[in-house]
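Anyone up for a design puzzle?
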C-alpha cells in the first residue's frame, strides 16, 4: 500500500504519479495481461493492490494502460501472480506514448536510444537522423491525412530531438547507406535543397557517423526488399526493424536479424565509400 505522499511502504515512488498523457499500445497490452493474470488467479483488484503494496487506484491505472509501472510493481506483480517471468519479459518492451512518434515505431525508438551501434539503409527518403529541418517539415506537411500546424511542430520537435543522438553518443557507431536517387528527389527550391545537403554533410562529419551512397548505376543489390534498420544493445542483443505503409515490425528472431545483417554488410561493400559519397553530395549541391 502507499502512504499519503504517494510512496510505497518501502519508500519507493508509487507509479500512480507517473500518469501517461498519451498511453502507448505496449502499455495497454501490458495492463491487459496484468488484469488477465490477476483475474485468472482469483484476486480482486483490491486484494491484488494489497499484495503488491500499491493503491487500488494505481493497479487500475496500470491495467488500463494509463500509467508506466515501475520496477517494484513489476517484481511484486510477478511474485503475486505465479512468478512465471511473463511480466518481467513484457516490461522490457514497454514504451511511453510519445505523440511525435508513430505507435509502431515507439518500441524501436526506445531501443535506439540505448543502442551500442545503429545501421540504417534507406531507399525512400533521407533517414530521419540526417534530415534538415526544412526537409522534415516538408515530409510532415505532405502526409495524408493532413495534420494541423501544431501537430507538424510537435512532430518536427521530436525529429530534431532524436537527431541529438549523433552528438550526444560520440562512441556509438552510426552507419547509413542511402540510395542516390533519394538525394536527387526535389522537395523545394534550390535554397532548401542546399540546406538539406549541408545538413547531411554536417551530420555525417563526426568520426562515429558513416554515410555511404548507392549510386544509381550500381544495379540490383541485396536490400531491394526495402529499408533496413539494425542495432545492437548494450547487452549484445541484436534487433532489426522494418517499416511499410502505416505499420512497422520489430525483429528479434536471431536468424532473421542475422540474414538482414548479411544483406546490409554486402550492400556496404557495393556502395560508394564515405569519401566518394561525400564528394557526390558536394557535386549535387554544386549543380543547384
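Challenge accepted. My sequence:
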Amino acid at each position: 500500500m502507499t502512504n499519503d505522499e504517494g510512496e510505497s511502504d518501502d519508500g519507493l515512488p508509487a507509479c500512480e504519479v507517473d500518469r501517461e498523457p498519451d498511453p502507448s499500445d505496449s502499455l495497454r497490452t501490458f495492463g491487459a495481461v496484468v488484469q488477465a493474470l490477476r483475474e485468472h488467479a482469483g484476486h480482486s483488484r483490491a486484494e491484488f493492490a494489497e499484495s503488491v503494496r500499491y493503491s487500488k487506484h494505481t493497479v487500475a491505472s496500470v491495467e488500463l494502460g494509463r500509467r508506466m509501472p515501475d520496477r517494484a510493481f513489476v517484481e511484486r506483480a510477478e511474485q503475486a501472480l505465479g512468478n512465471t517471468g511473463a511480466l518481467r519479459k513484457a516490461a522490457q518492451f514497454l514504451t511511453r506514448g510519445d505523440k511525435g512518434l508513430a505507435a509502431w515505431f515507439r518500441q524501436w525508438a526506445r531501443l535506439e536510444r540505448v543502442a551500442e551501434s545503429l545501421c540504417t539503409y534507406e531507399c525512400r527518403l533521407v533517414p530521419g537522423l540526417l534530415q534538415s529541418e526544412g526537409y522534415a517539415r516538408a515530409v510532415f506537411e505532405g502526409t495524408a491525412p493532413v495534420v494541423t500546424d501544431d501537430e507538424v511542430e510537435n512532430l518536427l520537435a521530436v525529429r530534431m530531438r532524436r537527431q541529438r543522438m549523433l552528438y550526444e553518443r560520440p562512441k556509438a557507431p552510426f552507419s547509413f547507406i542511402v540510395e542516390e536517387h533519394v538525394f536527387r528527389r526535389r522537395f523545394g527550391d534550390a535554397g532548401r535543397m542546399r540546406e538539406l545537403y549541408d545538413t547531411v554533410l554536417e551530420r555525417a562529419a563526426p568520426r562515429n557517423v558513416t554515410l555511404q551512397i548507392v549510386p544509381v548505376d550500381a544495379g540490383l543489390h541485396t536490400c531491394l526488399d526495402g529499408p533496413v534498420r539494425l542495432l545492437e544493445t548494450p547487452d549484445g542483443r541484436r534487433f532489426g526493424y522494418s517499416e511499410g505503409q502505416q505499420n512497422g515490425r520489430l525483429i528479434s528472431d536471431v536468424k532473421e536479424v542475422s540474414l538482414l545483417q548479411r544483406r546490409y554488410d554486402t550492400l556496404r561493400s557495393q556502395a560508394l565509400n564515405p569519401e566518394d559519397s561525400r564528394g557526390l553530395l558536394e557535386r549535387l549541391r554544386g549543380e543547384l
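A detail worth pointing out: Confidence is low (pLDDT under 50) at residues 1-21.
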